[in-house]
Amino acid sequence: MTWKLDCGVYTLFVIEDGFYWRDPDGYHDETTERDWRFHPRNDEGQVRMNFGCHLITDGDRTIMIDAGLGEPTPDMPPGMTVGLMPGAVDELGIARESVETVLYSHMHYDHIGGSMRDGHPVLPNARHVFHEKEWAFWSEADSDGGRAARKVVSPFIDADLVDFVDKDTEILPGITAVESFGHTPGHLMVSIISNGTRTLIGGDVSNHPFQVEHPHWSLPVDNDQDLAGKTRDRVFEELRETGTTFVAGHYPMPGVGKIVTDDGLRVYRPGSPPKAG
Ligand SMILES: [Zn+2]
User: Residue 205 Cα, ligand 1 centroid: separation in angstroms?
Assistant: First the structure.
């Protein structure tokens, strides 16, 4: 499923690459029922967890932010739906050949895995942009995450299809990759400022809406839990002060909302952009 958001001269499409259902218990020690209030539930009380990615176009130039999870892997929990991105792009009537850049928030598999299918790039003419600190870490990491990142990213590097950034970097006019380290060592968010609109695609700066209230409730997937909490707190404060729209691929779809003060608490307020397909 896809949703559509106006971002000045750009249109942002939220694309659901996949989802799964899980028991909310065990996700984080300190959560209560209230912390799961935004998540759809099934009959067994499980919550729906999402993998989102984001396509931005002005009708002429088109870029993708993260590529989703792609094909199922043997270590995935059973019952996961994954790899919906390519079909969703096709349904939007956007030629995959026209995507000129894929900008990746980081190298966790659920953000890079969808870039290849059957050994071929899903977006065949795209260059692939990462922060250089991200590759410096994952290229050396002796872990499943490191091996998975090398499997996906190395062929792109070998084919000279990768551009590394080492600071905040404008990708298209008004669209900037923004350093936001902590979840991973070279994590990037994407700021879109256009025609008076402000939108921030957070990547995994936050994986769950409860972190708006509790930025320091980090998760095992946060590489540096202390830094991840500090970065999150700073980002949410800026979003609240500036009224910027926040977009998060792991929040309940479409994962588009505002960071507001309600009853003295800083909270996530989901928006309701229209469906695009
Ligand atoms: Zn993720």
Answer: 9
pTM confidence score: 0.97
Instruction: Provide DSSP, 72-141.
Output: --TTSPTT-B---HHHHHHHTT--GGGEEEEE-S---HHHHGGGEETTEESSTT-EEEEEHHHHHHHTT-
> What is the per-residue pLDDT across 93-114, written as a single tens digit (0 to 9) for each?
999 999 999 999 999 999 999 9
Residue 75 confidence (pLDDT) above 80: no
- Separation of CA 15 and ligand 1 centre (Å): 14
- Over the stretch 127-177, which tens digit does the pLDDT of each residue have? 999 999 999 999 999 999 999 999 999 999 999 999 999 999 999 999 999
Residue 117 · residue 70 · CB < 8 Å = yes
Name the β-bridge partners of 154: none
Domains of the chain listed by start with CATH number: 2-270 (3.60.15.10)
Tell me how far the alpha carbon of residue 188 lies from the centroid of ligand 1, in angstroms. Answer: 12
The residues, any chain, with a CB within 8 Å of residue 27's CB and separated by 6 or more, are 208, 219
